[in-house]
Amino acid sequence: MAARMFSGEALADLRAAFSRRSSTRARRGRGAAVIVAGKPKAKNKDTGRAIHFRTGPERFNAGSQVGEAPRGGKGKGKTTRSQRTNKVYKQYLSGRPTVDDVERASRGDRTKAMGVVEREAPYRLTRDEREAWDRAKRRGGDNGKGYGGGGVLEMRSTQRDPLAPHRHPLVNTHRLYCDAKQALFVLVEQDNEGRDEIVCDLSTLRLERDAECRARLVALAATMEPGIVVDDACGDEEPIESQARYVAAMERDRLDGLSGLSGSDPSTMTDPPSDSDSNGDASSPAAAAPSDETLATARDAVDALGEEIRALKDGGAQNSDPEVARRVAKLLELKAELRALEDAAEASTPDAIEAAIRDEREARERSVEEARRSLAESPIYALPERYLRFKCPDRPTAKALAKALAQEDLLALALEPA
User: Fold this and answer.
1) Angle between helices 99-107 and 169-181 in degrees, nearest 10
2) I need a labelling partner for 375 at 20 to 30 A (CA). Which of 69, 265, 302, 396 fits?
């Protein structure tokens, strides 16, 4: 079509002009993409964590200098990143999550802190569960002290999963929220007939001793309604005692060399050592010590039976003979009894008794210290529940009692000086 409208010279001029315009446009685009790289800045050869842990001639510092160098760079007073992130205060940890991590867990998002939620437990809430959780948080209020205000969670008893009754997402998330707020976990299990049951969990307070707090809650329930039935699942055991008993049981399974833990009762691991251990009562090592006559009788029995076996072999009997085999088996039993008597006699010496008591006391102190650390640093799902149940005759009583329990300042009661 263009060949018909223009002559040959006009068509050539048009093509040349179009080619010049295209080359100019391309040249402008290429000019904008040119990057001029400057001279790279030299790195500080003393940065990083690995340089500080090299020892010997292979530790190279600035330039070709070999040997020990001051941390933070030669001649510089500033600290490196490895020093700033390796302070002593980092050893003080807390297992409590933040409210932001609880919100993230309720949405199914990844939390900022690792280990806050249990991997196998559900935390993501549905729309209905989130509405119920928002209502529970609004019931908490604010006491102006920086803690408390966990609220009251209400849910139907029939909502429990029959395969995993304690793995409900709403319960897990609200318990995590109460741990973050340092508040008492209060749950109202609503019955179809109106006989609701209130479940309180004191493990979210992370107290070493909560007997006074439980007594305060029971007294508060007694003032509300005389028909309330209280069920204390904690018994007379304190949190530090139950946790120390658990730690001691784990240590006994791992360490077989602790003689003080092998024969002790796990329920008395936190009790102070009694003076009856060395006074010769029925439970002390001195009471089980054999007498010299018993040891002499056992040694004589072993020697006599050994002489009989040697006499049989001198007479031509072999080890495979039934009579020799029977006497050898009896000799092994007597030797085992003699060894047990000798061990008991050795353990009944004053030095052995003192060493056993000292080992038991040290093991108990280690268990209590580890229990105290785990109560503060372990996540809430790793701590045992401290349940206190209140069976109410009707729903209005349950609502009023649950509100009063949630608003009770238990931390002030536990932390006040005796």
Assistant:
1) 170
2) 265
DSSP state string for 215-276: HHHHHHHHHH-TT-EEEETTTT--HHHHHHHHHHHHHHHH-S--HHHHSS-GGGTTSPPPGG
pLDDT tens profile 112-152: 888 888 888 889 999 999 999 999 988 876 666 768 788 89
Here the contacts of 328-333 (C-beta below 8 Å, separation 24 or greater) are 330/305, 331/302, 331/305, 331/306
pLDDT in tens, 24-66: 554 554 544 454 455 555 444 444 444 444 444 444 444 444 4
Contact assessment for residue 262 and residue 409, using Cβ atoms and an 8 Å cutoff: no
Q: What are phi and psi of 19, to 5 degrees?
A: -70, -40
Q: Show Cβ contacts of residue 198 under 8 Å, excluding neighbours closer than 6 positions.
A: 186, 187, 188, 189, 389, 390, 392, 398, 401, 402, 405
Enumerate residues 6+ apart whose C-beta is below 8 A from 241. 269, 270
**Residue 199, helix vs strand vs coil:** strand
* CB environment 27-45: b (16+ within 10 A), e (fewer): eeeeeeeeeeeeeeeeeee
pLDDT at 251 over 80: no
**DSSP secondary structure of 344-392:** HHHHTSHHHHHHHHHHHHHHHHHHHHHHHHHHHHS-GGGSPP-EEEEE-
